[in-house]
Amino acid sequence: MPEDQNIEWKQSWRDEYLKWICGFANAQGGRIYIGLDDNGNVTGAKDYRKLMEDIPNKVIAALGIMVDVNLLSQHGVYYLEINIAPSSIPVSYKGEYHYRCGSTKQILKGATLNDFLLRKNGTHWDAALAPSIHVEDLDHESFSIFKREAKRSQRLSPEQLASDNIELLDRLHLIQNGLLTRAAVMLFYREPEKIQIGSYVKIGRLDKKANLLYHDEIHGSLFVIADRVIDLLYLKYLKATVSYHKDTRVERYPYPREAVREIVFNALVHNNWAGCTPIQIRVDDDCLRISNCCILPMGWTQESLTTHHQSKPYNPLIAETFFRAGYIESWGRGIDNVNKYCSENKYPLPEFSLLGEDLTVTFYPDSSKSKVNTQNQSSRGYTDTELKVLKLIKTAPAITQKAIAEQLNISRSTVQRIIKLYVNSGIIERVGAKSRGVWTIAESSKI
After folding, report:
1. Spatial separation of the C-alpha atoms in residues 278 and 101, rounded to whole Å
2. pLDDT means per 10 residues in the chain (447 residues)?
3. 291 strand-pairing partners
4. Distance between CA atoms of 80 and 68, rounded to whole angstroms?
5. DSSP label of 64
6. DSSP per-residue letters across 91-103
7. How far apart are CA 185 and CA 190, in angstroms?
8. Fewer CB within 10 Å of terminal CB in the chain, N or C?
């Protein structure tokens, strides 16, 4: 019975553990054992009879919830089990909202707290009503774009697409009792910034000294933005290399269009628009960065985002409408699709980084077209960080991804990306059991 998301061991009771009970109640519930040491060995709970009466009373007084306190024993030594059920409403301790995440406790603040309170009350940001905007105010072009794409994706029937705007909004759950939701306004209103500042996308081209050379802002409904942003990025900001296969002209851009499109559309869907910060696409000489304000589902980390996971959209109504248009999938496969497309078309895998609520996805140039060395890239197209990872593997074949991340001071997701790059390229291979295996370097590798 190790400590985990739902279990905590304590040798003795302290009133500060009311914070932990608060955290469990706000998350998935859990159990706190009083009278166990850090290794889970039973050491016994002093005054256990008194605690069986005091703890429930203190919990009710401080948190307003009920807990079960059970007396257990092992070899004649008594200890306590505090059973905490998940609460359907937000629970606070002295005005603070605590939350159990993994094996730690967090205090929720700012946008994360606001999101938590909304979800506990059974709603999301995009489901709130926007009574100042009416159906007749919505944009005809935005509806046309949606119907065109939904017809192409075949995720709505011809009969549904032939319905009028009010009926269509109702089918998409974007209208309640005749009032538009925020999602409806974001998706189909020409000026969503009237209800939410920062509801647009900006693209900037910077030089080697990070000086802004030129930039654009794409305003309008999310469907107008989605319809224009990728074309603008590839026509104005990126240059393709040209080659010929027999008599056919072949253009290859430094960054894979389908993968970039997937990331941009997911940013539009999952962005925390309440943060008043536009989505930013930054084009540098050596990389392309896409950043948006992101609030991950409770308990998720950056690593959770980049591994297999269920689809848990931050804005479910916006996500469902984009899905019906064929712009995104609904199974949490977006990042898998991005990585698969990059690998199959021989592009470097993107790097994901999360700093506070700022999620940035970085694409690196098509290394197969690299002609010269740069400060950050070798002549074979590998970055300094990628080469350092390979050097560590060569030096210590049994090294773990966690150890690599710690030694190079980079994220686990970056290490996973680089490892996957080398494995897919046949440069390294894992031999042996997962927990005790070692990395081997291909004999043919000349890196």
Report:
1. 29
2. 74 94 92 91 92 95 94 94 92 92 81 79 86 95 96 94 94 94 97 94 93 96 97 93 74 92 96 92 94 80 68 90 92 82 89 87 73 38 78 89 85 81 82 74 65
3. 280, 360
4. 10
5. S
6. --BTTB-EEEETT
7. 8
8. N
